[in-house]
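Board notes (copied after class):
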Amino acid sequence: MTSVDDAFFYVASAQNESDDNKVNELFKKKRITHIFKEEEEEEEEEDMRDEETRKRKKVFTLLLVVDENEPKRVLLGEKKTGFGKGFYNGFGGKVEDSDENVLAAALRELEEEACIKALDAKEIGRITFVWIDEPEKPPWLVHIFRADAYSGQPSETDEMRPQWFALDEIPFQQMWADDQHWYPYVFQRKNFEGTFNFKQVTTLVDFQLNEVQEGSLSMQ
């Protein structure tokens, strides 16, 4: 082979190698694009599932009025009728279509059930309740609020009988089984999120509960 032929051979080889590299590079890009597309589709499907779950949830509020003066105490109400009758709880209920937002719903429920107005209510936690033995029953998403200032005098209503309790005398034995786990977060002003799984309405099976940074409560 002459030097000219050698030069042509090397040029041709380099050209072929360059073409192969281009093909390989193009293949890699297409493969990466395909992987990203699959990941995006999976994320979209997951978002759709999450959105569907959120749509299925019933949304409620629960507001605790805390008095920081010594001895520190919390205002609870004994449920007089309906679901949870005989249990002590904070004040709240279902968010109605007429409510401007969940805070408005929490304030409305407090006034309806205890005849007082919260002046500084702030959301501090969110809890999802799942009824594992009733799969057709939608989960409940409860927005938890804390208030330290209020106006009016707590008064008994058709639904609730308000009563102050010192923080070390809260009647957890006459309350929902989840309360003893997340009430301390409220008293310590810690933001939290949790999921509580129940069966047979009142039996707590298991739960997850985590402190979260202020302002980072998930948009459920």
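Comment from the instructor: Residues 3-56 form the longest helix (54 residues). Residues 1-56 form one domain.
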